[in-house]
Amino acid sequence: MNTPSASSAMVGLAVALGIGLMVGIERERRKGDGDRRAAAGLRTFATVALAGAVAQTLPEPALVPIGGALVATLSATSHWKSRSRDPGMTTEIALFATYLIGVLCVIEPSLGAACGTGLALLLAARRGLHRFATELLSEQELRDGVLLAALALIALPFIPGRPIELLGGIAPRPLGTMVLLIMAIQAAGQAAVRWLGARGGLLGLGFASGFVSSTATVASFGNRVREQPQFTSVLAGAAALSAVATWVLALAMTSALSPQAGFALLPVALAGAAGAAAVGLMPLLSARSPVAIEAPASTRSALRPREALTIAIALALVALLVGSAQRHFGNAGLLVGIALAALADAHAPVASLASLHAAGTLSTDHFVWDVLVAVGTNTLTRCAVALAAGGKAYALRVTAALAASLICACLAAVLLRG
After folding, report:
1. pLDDT of 161-213, one tens digit each?
2. Which of 63, 110, 130, 310 is the most buried (most CB within 10 A)?
3. Cα atoms in the Cβ-side hemisphere of radius 13 Å centred on 281
4. Burial class (CB in 10 A: 0-12, 13-18, 19+), 366
């Protein structure tokens, strides 16, 4: 066992004492008073954290496990002898965790401080977490969350992470990550409609639907305008928020495929998202009457894996076509391929561009401007869809938001280039 230096030991002891006091203050407020008060409070938690740090500091390896066994035994005894009607073991488990964090504070003070702060936040958020688990979160949403976690932690690691030449240099694992991202956004969108009510739900629905397809979102809200023309401005604003999702997802995909390209696209994407949000939110915030939105049934799953898989397959196919166009026709072929692909959806060409940048066949400057070409081409498609689906008034409002988004993004690119 390596004995820490005097200065390192002092830092570790100080951090451990601070963590013990912070967690102990939170537990002291819930300790109660009188004969039924809990056994562990401010002084106990501070002492236990300090004891863990001292045990790690002294040159005797057996002290740490002995101290841990003692704290665990005392916690179990306290729980067994407690006369409280609350059967929970939070305080007892937190006491043992505080001892371990005290040990960690000597080994790695910054990590120990982070763990201790996280423990204190978790304990302090008791009511909010209980309300979320029992009132806000439905049974179906819980199952959806568990399924997403299983796909992310069990299935995703088995997907190959090496780039495949036939996919234009895109690795299958980032494609799987995008599928999970889209499914997570689907679940978040349904929860937003149910939790936030009509106005907030409409905002959330417009934004979340844009992660699947901004063009389809514009068409969907345009069809609703035909049925409810009195809410044209509000529905157009919600449809415009799908453009915010377009930029967010483009940035997320780019960062997953090529972090350097994602960093270059960040200010452009933020400017484009801000422009769309500024115009789109105005009618939503100023409208006097809420739009009648039917909240989704909490018993129906929000996950639509078929849609997410379709998008992933489309990304791979477009990456193949765009990569082939660049190899055979150079940059001119690349621009034509991007523009044609973006007529249907902007996400696929952006993903292929990011893969080309990651492979070293596309410069950062060309990447940013090619992304603007893709988004600009798709903007024309969305404007045409808005006119066909919702009429002239709806199309004018949607076009204003999309144009503001594209102009802001182009200005950001020009300023960065200059």
Report:
1. 776 665 555 567 766 776 676 667 666 656 665 666 556 667 777 787 777 77
2. 63
3. 11
4. middle
DSSP letter for 211, please. T
Residue with tokens 């979160």: 137
Question: Measured between alpha carbons, how far is residue 198 from residues 31, 141, 204 in Å?
Answer: 41, 20, 10
Q: Which residue type sits at 191?
A: A
Residue 164, judged by CB atoms within 10 A of its CB (0-12, 13-18, 19+), counts as middle
**pLDDT winner (highest mean) among 39-53, 104-118, 186-200:** 104-118
Task: Break the chain down into helix, strand, coil percent, rounded to 5.
Answer: 80, 0, 20
3-state secondary structure of 26: helix
Output the pTM of the full model: 0.52
**326/342 Cα distance (integer angstroms):** 16
CB 183 within 8 A of CB 148: yes
> Containing H/E element for 28?
helix 6-29
pLDDT of 61-82, one tens digit each? 888 888 888 888 887 777 676 6
**Is the per-residue pLDDT at 12 higher than 70?**
yes
CA distance 278 to 192: 20
pLDDT score, position 303: 64
DSSP class of residue 159 equals S
- Six-digit token pair at 29? 């407020």
Please count the other Cβ atoms lying within 10 Å of the Cβ belonging to residue 117: 15
Give dist(CA 180, CA 113) in Å, integer: 32
Token pair, residue 198, equals 């009509």
